[in-house]
């Protein structure tokens, strides 16, 4: 395992992040404690140190399992990321949302479940369209100054909100968001319109969730296997099937599994990207780790880009039109004047 810096920080994290949403057996699926421990052991033995969880995963069981695991090992070896926002109990109207009250309460509860004094990376889990971004950033900065959190990050939030937040944080001397967690895969490339360019501008690392599109990119649904994706899901439509078939073709060409190709693609997009690969079995983790040894050549990347291409919308597509040269102001303005 190689290590990368997380965003504009000195924090060293493994090039693959272990997703732990499946730690726990609530809702009839997932890994029990013994299996979860074995998965984390295998990840650490491979050099992995970056763990991703959240206060609501498996009703808090994911954090509890990780806490029991870390209590018996070197806590400082691991970089532990968790999240706040989503409702984790029904005790009060502020048991959810981005507000400071929920943030502070949620973090204290997470620290108890995780059996630790500090969280390495705290994500805002999802934007609530209610709380002012300055309230969020000041709260996160206070937690960092208290030593309960080391770094701030954000997930599932519009690009303009994140951009405003990091600009405000820089102006005020507060801690900035160093990582951006969004759904990103060959089947879900819409973050390329605004979110990923924004992350590149601010030097944020992108940590994609569902880089295998819920297993669709492994090809198992084309083989008729059952899973947790609903039949009407966009991950299983005609376009997604076409993308998956191309992934399988390249995997066959390389003599690897389709999952290796899909994960490798996310890591070869020209920006800092650490995919979050979940596992509920040790064998799944071991397969995902093999993606680190896969390098796609220019032709393979082009085939994958073409089959999964999306419309950037305005102004992205406008910038790409014939005759519009962003590096030639004269040509650009000539085109605008003609309109």
Automatic annotation (TrEMBL):
GO terms for molecular function: oxidoreductase activity. Keywords: Oxidoreductase. InterPro entries: AKR_Detox_Biosynth, NAD(P)_OxRdtase_dom_sf, NADP_OxRdtase_dom. One of its GO terms (cellular component) is cytosol. It holds the Pfam family Aldo_ket_red. It comes from the Bacteria. Residues 16-307 form the NADP-dependent oxidoreductase domain. SUPFAM superfamilies: NAD(P)-linked oxidoreductase. This is Aldo/keto reductase.
């Amino acid at each position: 395992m190689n290590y990368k810096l997380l965003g504009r920080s000195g924090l060293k994290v493994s090039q693959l992040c272990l997703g732990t949403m499946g730690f726990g057996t609530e809702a009839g699926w997932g890994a029990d404690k013994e299996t979860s421990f074995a998965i984390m052991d295998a990840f650490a033995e491979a050099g992995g140190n970056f763990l991703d969880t959240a206060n609501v995963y498996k009703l808090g069981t994911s954090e509890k399992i990780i806490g029991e695991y870390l209590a018996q090992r070197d806590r400082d070896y691991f970089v532990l990321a968790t999240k706040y926002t989503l409702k984790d109990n029904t005790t009060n109207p502020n048991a959810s949302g981005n507000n400071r009250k929920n943030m502070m309460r949620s973090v204290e509860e997470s620290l108890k479940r995780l059996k630790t004094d500090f969280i390495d990376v705290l994500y805002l889990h999802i934007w609530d369209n209610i709380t002012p971004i300055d309230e969020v950033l000041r709260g996160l900065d206070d937690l960092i100054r208290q030593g309960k959190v080391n770094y701030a990050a954000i997930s599932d939030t519009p690009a303009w909100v994140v951009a405003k937040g990091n600009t405000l944080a820089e102006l005020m001397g507060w801690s900035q968001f160093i990582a951006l967690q969004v759904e990103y895969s060959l089947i879900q490339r819409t973050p390329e319109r605004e979110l990923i360019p924004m992350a590149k501008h601010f030097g944020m690392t992108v940590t994609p969730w569902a880089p295998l599109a819920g297993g669709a990119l492994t090809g198992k649904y084309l083989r008729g296997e059952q899973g947790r994706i609903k039949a009407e899901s966009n991950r299983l439509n005609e376009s997604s099937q076409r993308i998956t078939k191309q992934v399988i073709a390249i995997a066959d060409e390389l003599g690897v599994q389709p999952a290796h190709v899909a994960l490798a693609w996310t890591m070869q997009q020209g920006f800092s990207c650490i995919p979050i690969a979940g596992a509920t079995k040790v064998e799944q983790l071991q397969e995902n780790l093999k993606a680190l040894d896969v390098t796609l050549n220019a032709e393979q990347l082009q085939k994958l880009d073409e089959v999964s291409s999306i419309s950037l919308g305005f102004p992205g597509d406008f910038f790409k039109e014939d005759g519009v040269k962003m590096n030639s102001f004269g040509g650009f303005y000539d085109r605008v004047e003609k309109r």
